Amino acid sequence: MLIVPSLTTVILAVSSTTATVTPENSSRLTLAIGTAIQDSVPPPSPDETDQEIESVPGLGQETSFIPGTRLTVSASYAYLFNSSIEGGGSFSLGRFRVRGRGATALTDTLDLTYGVRYQLDSFDFSRQGSNNFFSKSPWSSVDTLQLNVAGVMTIDQRWRVFGGGVVRFGAESKADWADGIEAGGAVGFSYSFSPSLTIGGGFGVTTRLEDSLYFYPIIVADWMIVDGLMLTTRMSTGWGDETGIELVYTIAQGWDVGVGAAYEWNRFRLNDEGPAPGGVGVLRSIPTYGFLRFNATPKASLSVYAGVNAWGQLEALDANGNKVADEKFRPGFLLGIQGQITF
Question: Which tens digit of pLDDT belongs to each residue from 141-159?
Answer without folding.
Answer: 999 999 999 999 999 999 9
